[in-house]
Amino acid sequence: MNAVFNGAVDTQRLRMVPLGLSDVDAAYAVLSDPAVYAYIPDDPPGSVAALRARWARYLEGPAVGVDEGWVNATVWTTNPSQVIGTVQATVYPARRRADIAYLLGSAFWGCGYGTEAVAAWVAGLWQHAGGTTTQDCMIDCIEATVDVRNVGSWRLLERLAFERVAFIPEADHFKGAVSHEYRYRLQRPPARSAAS
C-alpha angle with apex 113: 143 to 120, nearest 5 degrees? Predict the structure, then answer.
């Protein structure tokens, strides 16, 4: 992953800050909310220490020799300053693709924060991994996979012009239920050629 993109992105109401263990205490109340995990196979962290261990693993990055890069950020509101969730990207340079994920505390659903955060996150990925010319582009598309029951999440992606490209029946089984999934894709905006 291009080291220039560390995950720092600002919007009018939000600030995405590179994931750091110093933010664990502030994030725990939001990220320990069971509602946030209803449609993903993860469970809420059972303690601040468990969240710290989870984030420490994220900060280690992928295993040596794995052709992917991880970028994770904590999403803060700017006024008042409080953690409301996280955004993540896994960049696969060989596949010229990034996969994104996001968690937003349920107290902040329906406020437009999710759309604002994901739109800014996507813009940051295009700016830093999408390249400014076809020669320096690392990714051609950004994808996300969403449980079909998570209507709010797949509607968010559709608002941001992601196209539903696949239905994956019985993609997973967790929390006593089968998870069918939608795969969404956003193609890279046209890049300038080096001659431009």
Answer: 50
